[in-house]
Amino acid sequence: MDVALATAWLRAVAESVDADADELTKLDSAIGDGDHGVNLRRGFTAVAALLDGTAFTSVGDVFVRAGGTLISKVGGASGPLYGSAFRAVGKALPPGPAVTPADLVTALRAGLDAVSALGGAVPGDKTIVDAYRPAVMAFGEAVAGGAALPEAAAGAARAAGDGARATVSLTARKGRASYLGERSAGHQDPGATSTWLIFQALADVTAP
Amino acid sequence: MDVALATAWLRAVAESVDADADELTKLDSAIGDGDHGVNLRRGFTAVAALLDGTAFTSVGDVFVRAGGTLISKVGGASGPLYGSAFRAVGKALPPGPAVTPADLVTALRAGLDAVSALGGAVPGDKTIVDAYRPAVMAFGEAVAGGAALPEAAAGAARAAGDGARATVSLTARKGRASYLGERSAGHQDPGATSTWLIFQALADVTAP
Amino acid sequence: MKKFINDPNDVVAEALAGLAAAHPELRVDHTEQYVARADAPRSGKVALVSGGGSGHEPLHGGFVGPGMLDAACPGEVFTSPVPDQILAATKAVDGGAGVVHVVKNYTGDVMNFRMAAELAADEGITVETVLVDDDVAVEDSTWTAGRRGTGATLLVEKIAGALAEEGGKLGEVAAIGREVNAASASFAYALTAVTTPAAGRPGFDLPDDEIEAGVGIHGEPGRRREKLRPAGELVRSALDAILEAKPVESGDRVIVLVNGLGGTPLIELYLVYGEVATVLAARGIEISRRLVGNYVTSLDMAGLSITVTRVTGEMVRLFDAPVRTPGLRWGA
Amino acid sequence: MKKFINDPNDVVAEALAGLAAAHPELRVDHTEQYVARADAPRSGKVALVSGGGSGHEPLHGGFVGPGMLDAACPGEVFTSPVPDQILAATKAVDGGAGVVHVVKNYTGDVMNFRMAAELAADEGITVETVLVDDDVAVEDSTWTAGRRGTGATLLVEKIAGALAEEGGKLGEVAAIGREVNAASASFAYALTAVTTPAAGRPGFDLPDDEIEAGVGIHGEPGRRREKLRPAGELVRSALDAILEAKPVESGDRVIVLVNGLGGTPLIELYLVYGEVATVLAARGIEISRRLVGNYVTSLDMAGLSITVTRVTGEMVRLFDAPVRTPGLRWGA
Ligand SMILES: Nc1ncnc2c1ncn2[C@@H]1O[C@H](COP(=O)(O)OP(=O)(O)O)[C@@H](O)[C@H]1O
Ligand SMILES: Nc1ncnc2c1ncn2[C@@H]1O[C@H](COP(=O)(O)OP(=O)(O)O)[C@@H](O)[C@H]1O
Ligand SMILES: [Mg+2]
Ligand SMILES: [Mg+2]
Ligand SMILES: [Mg+2]
Ligand SMILES: [Mg+2]
Predict the structure, then answer these.
(1) Which residues, 6 or more positions from D100, have their beta carbon under 8 angstroms from its beta carbon?
(2) Which one of A116, C228, D114, D299 is most buried, by most CB atoms within 10 A?
(3) What ipTM did this prediction achieve?
(4) Which protein residue has the closest C-alpha to ligand 2 atom 2?
């Protein structure tokens, strides 16, 4: 993955978050406060603006700066979580204009660790983690099995989608949805859904 | 009309106002503040309680005390207007346990004068006056023509009903409905409607 | 209808019980149904009495206290109080210097207060009446009952109340109240209809993209129905009506009230105040003081009114004077 | 959706512009998006900074001023502020004696304030955080994000703010804030769902005879849906939950807050306060002070919360201390 691909990914995320903002907000209205779509649209619009105005020489920098922008612009729970994740991803990458799929595996894991450390959620809590973790695992296994980036990314997107859909039956134990107790079951988690969008965007921009 | 008939009339008004309170309130919601039915129900319930607890020896007293009760209990525009009307009716009657239809003509006219003096409304302003005035006129003409009370009362009720229905097309120039300007047209005036109920109650209790 | 009530018939009495429990500095007479300063009557002080239908809270009960009203008479919801109540309150707070009745211009209020004033006169109490009729959405003509009293009531009560508190004479207190009213103009919009406890359903239907322009505070429909427009446009229209009815020149000073009707959140009221400030600044009008909040309400109606009062230095001084009531408090 | 707004994206910024225009005694930084006392920083004074999503007005911006907050950071509607904002506000009001962050316990608020506190520490500012989590509708367990911060926030800000104003040290100010929170319990009902400007439609559908019990202030559904019941019954259920979670004994003294969520009229809040007073009196609990009004709101949501705080004499003294903010004012 080079700087161009990294920025293409983030731009694709911005587009898909914009297109699906209403859907995300609807999910968040059911078990949260109805702002997840607006939050991410605001954040990734700012990320896109950042990319327009900056020339990057390092892939890691792209993610570090994007993460910082998310922290500065999103607010809520998802802002610090996604922001810290992207910052951790960026920091875990070796310096330079291109990184290998194996570098990305390590970096995505660092992102997952950041989310877990900051939010304290474990699998099954009905959060971002429930899409992010299977995506990272699928991505890592694919790369370990010799897959190229497009294939690994497609597998990660599928795993994230499965993880997001599987949140429907879960009872939330972290974040706002946990206030609803049992009533949170039966609804798909908005954060897990946006995580799926993020990995789907990677699959889309790498697809041959 | 003796004391028994006077109290029977007011009780009949109380019953019919109670039965039609929702209808009156609905009319008042359209062009006023939606309290006319509740106002009159509160007032005439208190009048009925007064009648239960008092032994009257004079017809005039019945109306004077009923009017005072309305003033004390109703509030709004209709309280002082109906209260003053009944007080004026009572005061205009000769003392004693029974009065003639001719006495009633004079007294009802005094009631109308009280409403006009207090509220300043003229015919066509879409108010109580638009039902009260034709009723008094019909009553007076019938009595002048030699009609007995039942017949005169029936004519007054018909005239009040015609008058109330005719308020539909009028644009209000007095009371709350006047704030709506042209938009008050197309709705029947709640106060004219309750005046109709009052005269209808007289017709009902005198009907042979 | 969903409301935090028990029996719709008991709403006013039970809310008064709560008011009494919450405010030991007020004396609530539950039999005569009025709210008075606990320290009334104050000998030699001109007393201010107001009242009107319930459902406009904090008006009037919430404005009883030092620097404002001596007593308030709450009627049933949206129904003016009865003469007995007003008379009882008037007698209870009369300190021998006369009583000012602040009356919003509605047929019912006017008649009931007039009757009470006559009864009070019979008992030797001098009453002056200040009629408030600031709502410029209503044409003031022989074809209407005249303009309604709305937001300006608060300013009349505050400013006249301050003059009474500092020892103003009956005529002076009534006079400044009338001046404030004469210098005031208001205009209101409603986004939703009101639901009274007694009616149990909204007074009218309003489609999801329409509003009522020129409404009063009793849930009645307005002068006309309009399409919803951006707040900035609504403010400009309202100010056009207000400044046409009661001209304010560049260089004049005003007090502005952006008043919520009950169901509109503060964030919208502040946004609207920002628009008002911008328009008035462009016209060279100086906003000396302002209030933004829910003061003269219409139960749960979503909507707001804008009041502009052209003020003298004396009015501003009296506006600034200490006031200590449940609904308005400063300097004490 | 019918609201007095222009573009839904500009609501917070435009409302802040209105707040700034209305309150010259506040300084609004429109770039960093915070509201501060105009006289901040005050050298040697512990500063209080709070913040959270917009839509809860007057919380928090309306509680900035002498005796309460030094600064407030409004996020987007129902969205916690970002660390940059909080850091900027913290730096702007730090008078060298440390800064207390009053943070409502929501995942987003907690994380954003924590990040800001770390950044502030990097710049040599000592920050103590007071976490408010009074909403007993939420179980406080490892199975939830913990109890939400709701009505008690007002009391924490008032009482800790008063101690800071009179010279309390950082540790003392934070300690009393935590004590107030620990002594507070709240429970809320919603009659309607909230409509955020961004979503444009109500967050959930609620039939005309049902309510949500145990709601927070962000328009989320509550713990359970119930049939509407008379106010007296709702109050008893809420107080059962409150007094079970934080026991108050006969003879104890409390401050009570009956808080409207935005769309509920004052007449209902007072009626409910009357019910609360009756229940507590029957239990031998003395209500030392009380507030009845819209303080911690949820945009246009019809609903209310009840907060009971068991107080010490010191807390009452600090509650009574002068405060001068747009949303709460006495003694000044
Ligand atoms: N502790 C946590 N760990 C991981 N993800 C979380 C946590 N808390 C919340 N989330 C995620 O954040 C999403 C909500 O984000 P958003 O709506 O933007 O923030 P907020 O809840 O503050 O309104 C939830 O759907 C959930 O996936
Ligand atoms: N000036 C007036 N003269 C005669 N009748 C009037 C006048 N003003 C109002 N009314 C009558 O009063 C009725 C409304 O009564 P009500 O609803 O009880 O009082 P309010 O208007 O104070 O709520 C109107 O329908 C009208 O018929
Ligand atoms: Mg959310
Ligand atoms: Mg009426
Ligand atoms: Mg009425
Ligand atoms: Mg949020």
Answers:
(1) D46, D47, D48, D49, D127, D128, D129, D130, D160, D164, D170, D173, D174, D177
(2) D299
(3) 0.95
(4) B119
One-letter amino acid of C218: H
In whole angstroms, give the CA distance from residue A168 to residue A19: 22
Taken in order of first residue, the domains within chain C and their CATH numbers are 11-183 (3.40.50.10440), 184-322 (3.30.1180.20)
Least Cα distance to B20 among B141, B204, B193, B208 occurs for B193
CB contact under 8 A, C208 and D232: no
Domains annotated for chain A, with CATH where assigned, are 3-206 (1.25.40.340)
- Which residue's entry shows tokens 């906003």? C287
Phi-psi region of C39 (alpha: psi -120 to 50; beta: other; left: phi over 0): alpha
Q: Which residues pair with C50 in a beta bridge?
A: C72, C102
Helices within chain A (DSSP H only)? 3-19, 21-31, 36-53, 59-73, 78-92, 101-119, 129-144, 149-166, 190-206
D225 neighbors D207 (Cβ within 8 angstroms) = no
**Is the pair C, B in contact (3+ CB pairs within 8 Å)?**
yes
Contact between C55 and C300 (Cβ < 8 Å):
no
- In what side-by-side order are the strands of the sheet with D286-293? D224-227, D210-213, D184-190, D303-310, D253-260, D286-293
Compute the count of residue pairs across chains C and D with CB atoms less than 8 Å apart: 186
Encoded tokens for B173: 């120039």
Residue with tokens 């809040």: D269
D197 inside 8 A of chain A by CB = no
Residues 6+ apart with CB under 8 A from B146: none
Task: Tell me the whole-structure pTM to 2 decimals.
Answer: 0.96
Please tell me the distance from the alpha carbon of residue D2 to that of residue C208, in angstroms, as a whole number: 7
**Measured between beta carbons, which residues in chain C are less than 8 angstroms from residue B119?**
107, 111
What's chain A's length in residues?
A: 208
Tens of each residue's pLDDT in chain C, 332 residues: 999 999 999 999 999 999 999 999 999 999 999 999 999 999 999 999 999 999 999 999 999 999 999 999 999 999 999 999 999 999 999 999 999 999 999 999 999 999 999 999 999 999 999 999 999 998 877 778 899 999 999 999 999 999 999 999 999 999 999 999 999 999 999 999 999 998 888 988 899 999 999 999 998 888 899 999 999 999 999 999 999 999 999 999 999 999 999 999 999 999 999 999 999 999 999 999 999 999 999 999 999 999 999 999 999 999 999 999 999 999 99
